[in-house]
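Encode chain A's predicted structure.
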Amino acid sequence: MIEKLPCECLLEIFNKFRDNSLFSCLLVNRRWCRIIVPILWRNIDKHLGDRRAIRICLLSLNAEEQTLLIPFNIALPNCPKPLFEYTSYTTSISDHLNIGIVDWFNYYDDSPVEYIGNGLHNALKCSLISMFL
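Encoded structure for chain A:
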């Protein structure tokens, strides 16, 4: 009979891997996936410039955070909530968030955002930061 390594041991091992290697490990089994997702999302900071990461974050907004966006008529994604609460694993955010928001608006929203700092951008940024906190 094969004994399983304790989750603590796997966590220590996976913490030594680079992100690229961890993506492949996500697909091994559910147990590994549950250990690896928090590791990957802990360092999401550099990926917040990607509209796909922003989309996942927007799907994680709770009702109160979404309500703050109603006056701005921002069309939030209309999909089921993600399997994991990815944003709860995030430990830091940076200016990449601004880039990702602009990219998300330009790709998913009908009205393009030409510059950082207008009301739509700030409302979305405030809601996302509120969620991360």
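The radius of gyration is 17 Å.
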